[in-house]
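Case 178 in the screening queue. Each case pairs one protein sequence with one candidate compound; here the compound is magnesium ion. For every case the pipeline is the same: read the inputs, emit a complex structure as tokens, and attach any notable structural observations.

Predict complex for case 178.
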Amino acid sequence: MEIVTVKDKKFAISITAEQLRQRIAEIAAQISKDMEGKKPLFLAVLNGSFMYAADLMRGITTPCEISFVRFASYEGMHSTGCVNEVLGLAEEIKGRNVIVVEDIIDSGLTMQLLLSKLREHQPADLRVASLLVKPGNLKVELDIAYTCFEIPNDFIVGYGLDYDGEGRNLPAIYTVME
Ligand code: 5GP
Ligand code: MG
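Case 178 output:
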């Protein structure tokens, strides 16, 4: 399918399922090599990264673990305003080689906050593996160890990413049409 409709918008294909498969296999091989003997703990950020995390894990050839976290951001009762919390962090990450698996990094603010929360738990090593990065929108300095694709600043859906809750099931990445 070259063009799909999600809710009220049309989207055109920009990264095919085959391109995703090939590139994710390359990244998985690189991570496997870098993490040999280190038993990394992958922390996949829900919801958007579920499909990427599943395919990435299939290509990891060194012993590893995976767990899932959700980043909750809500207005607190106190004057400080916004409260942020990492939900689901059951695994002990102290002293571990942790790789955060994310769908997309846009401004980078979410990832910056998440990394600072995770650092409080003193992992031995903390790296980011993001399927997509929009370099043109980055507002903070982030060290992203593993990037599958850099993309322009357009809104995309598919392969785990949603438009207002829908489109996560699409097997490829689609970009919104004007
Ligand atoms: P950041 O804090 O880096 O600006 O935002 C990252 C989050 O914004 C992602 O986890 C994702 O939920 C959302 N996001 C940014 N760009 C897109 C996009 O093009 N499509 C979709 N579906 N979500 C996006
Ligand atoms: Mg995300």
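Case 178 observations:
- Helices lie at 17-34, 50-58, 109-119.
- Residues 48, 103-111, 155-157, 161-163 surround guanosine-5'-monophosphate (ligand 1) (CB under 6 Å).
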